[in-house]
Give the backbone structure.
Amino acid sequence: MTAIGRRRFLGYVLAAPTLVTAAGLDAGLPSPEITDLLDLNDLMTAAALPTANLITVEVGPDGTVSFALPRAEVGQGITTSTAMLIAEELSVPVGRVRVTLADARPELVFNQLTGGSNTTFATYVPIRVAAAVARSRLMQAAAAELGVAPADLTLKDGVISNRAGRSVGIGELSGRAATTRTLRVPVELAARESFTVIGRPHNRIDALDAVTGRKKFTLDLDVPDAKPAMVCRPPTINGKVGSVANLAEVRAMPGVTDAVVISTGVAVRAATFGQCVDAVRALRVTWKPGTAEGKSDESVLRELRAAEPPLGLRPPTPVVEGSFTFHFRSNSALEPNCAIADVRADRAEIWSSLKSPIVAQQAIAARLGLPQSRVTVHVTEGGGSFGRKLFFDAALEAAELSQRVGKPVKLLWHRADDSRQGRTHPMAISRVRVSYLGGTVLGYQQRHTSVSTDLGHGLGEIITALAARLPGGDLSFAQTFFQLSQTMPYQFGVSGRLLNETDRGFNTGSMRNVYSPDVTCARELVVDRLAARMGRDPRRFRHDFLHDERSRAVLAAVAEAGEWGRPMPAGTAQGIAFHSEYKSVSAALVEIDCRPETVERPIRDGVTGPRVTKAVFAVDAGLAVNPRGLEAQMMGGVMDGIALALTSSLHLRDGHFLEASWDDYFYTRQWNTPPDLRIIVMPSTSDRPGGAGELGVAASMAAVACAYGRATGTMPTTFPINHGTLSFTPKPTVPPIPPSPADGLDHAR
Amino acid sequence: MPEHTFRVNGEQVTVEVAPDVRLLWVLRDLLGITGPKYGCGIDVCKACTSHLNGKAVSPCAIPVGELRPDDEVTTIEGLAATSGQELHPMQRAWLDHDVSQCGYCQPGQIMAAVALVRRVAEEGRAVTDADLDGLRNICRCGTYPRIRDAIRAGAEAMR
């Protein structure tokens, strides 16, 4: 039997008073014996595999099915897709499955990290196996109860019936299906042809809570005496406190209970966050230098150019080259960094949205001087992440502060803190050279040089642990990550790509992927230029050089739906691009309007610029567990791609970022949104889901860049394209956060 | 400490706090009404959008001392009751279009949408693309197209 499409697995029934089941250890990779891991998803899945049997499905006496997902839900819809997997195998309504987020569980080792668009890929089989074991036990218990063979029973909507019409609910059977000693049992998963839940569009299971305000995020939790806290932060990146002139005065301000120096600044705790804002602004602090003192966009660009690996000797054939600059970008989610901490002498309890809670637990325990087992870390629902919540900066700070003042705290980063001291997507340059002769492409080389990306959130440890199984196992974390995540989808002869990193002075992280949007954008722009040099249509050229039919199919889908090649007025144009990753393929076609009347359309305190008037995006993510959720992820990816190409960046000047809020960091807004957007979810080409959470960004960004180049007649080389124009007046850095406005009543509308 | 009396979601409330504390923090930190979210604190992201006497406002920019006893504050928690239904038509439209991703901005988005639809209705016209372009609420998950679709459907249902 081939590994793909395999349906027989071993699972466990665990000793417990109610029915609790888990997957066996063979339920992870399509082919567990492979010695070379092919890409980042294989790597992360292999790392999760040895602990797959520790993740359990539980059937309660009330007929509900519970599952504590060891991943973070931050908007990507994995609680919904997970409930769908369980509902499919257990034949219960999706609404009967309660998916919660597991606390940090160190025994899971590498199986509690949410990243690399890997969740559904890694958990698709193990979760179904656990649910299938539960189904098998329930059927056996019902058979005993009803006095018939299991084969004569049907399970539907959580009720098991025999042919005579007698029935019993799975809740009633939970105790009888349980076991007092752990059993290993073989199961067969539902056949794909029989699916009634997987593959059908389903609305999010948390939608009602979200639209009624009942959905609870970290700051919404009511932890006794966890009063608001904020930190007065330095005027330059990672500066340190020298001295504070007026601590006593600030402690006496209305509502303030504490004001103390911590490792990252001066923390205040008060009855309300509003009073924290006032206290932070009142502090008079002298600061020591940070880790990027005096640096600017220009100086970092010089560092990057100095660190760029050479492309090698220029071949004697014709070549097309391009060199591109990608500025710093903020991976801020709308929910800023925040955490609740209640630290006592002998234990600590933390609440935060964490994508790497085990590493957070280790780091917090070390900071507090407590054993790891004395630190409970609750993973809360997150208000977006985009990479930011792989880190636990606020949780670590909250723990330190709670210990310091001896009281529970609810710590929030002001938006200005999040923008200026928070994680950024690193600035990078990318140089591409393609050599060709006649109609043949002979070689493709790309050199990507980036400010160092911090992978110290657990992914680095995963890479280290599996290094022996990696091709080229002696590479650095970052180089391994780069090589595992980048592929060459075109038949471009001898191809090669290298990453070099420089400068560890910045707080960096991923931002809906680390390298792909920039690497792909550079590549696709050069592909357009190459096609033009060869006198070929950009779409036809891509079609002819793409490796496989699946890739050509998404390209054809957007070309057809987007009417590729239709006549466009001067100053407007179409762009088309392709990207593959996470065992998924995608293509984007956009139309952009760069005419002056559009670019200069007035919007108060916002950047307008060229408008993407239409976007068509096609995705083949293998088996789409929830097509509606997949569509939502692609939609978000398109909005991110538009922002990265056109408007959103951080400006570094004199050791700090100028941007301090959403009125000067120009993420896509309604006035930048394409009025016409179409997402095409391709028919599934695989029995397994690929990754999707970050997938949509790269092709979208590249298509917008290509369209801009074709509309203006000039290939853009610096991103976002408006970076050279500072479209706002920077807010002061001292005090570090702006005052709360008081004119809200004047703007009621 | 001065007392401030106003109405929230149909009930009279009195809070004791300095008059310059912004309404957002009175709602969230003192009254435990957490539907309105913090996203910027300076009235630009609109995640805290709520209604004051039926119009959209940003509670992060309103000193609580400026409220009068008969001022009616409606947060997302109180929206459905204003329609006399279990869910407001705009909330239903949001569910129908499966708009929310992380959901953090959605209470503010819905409150802004309802105020927009009321405003254009008062002007005797339908919601236009320009109206939708003018919405300032940030959705960092990027679900803007579904927001636009839901507002159009919600506007129909509110007629």
Observations:
- The domain at 3-79 of chain B is CATH 3.10.20.30 (Ubiquitin-like (UB roll)).
- Chain B touches chain A through 77 residues (CB under 8 Å).
- Chain B has a mean pLDDT of 97.
- Chain B has six helices and five strands.
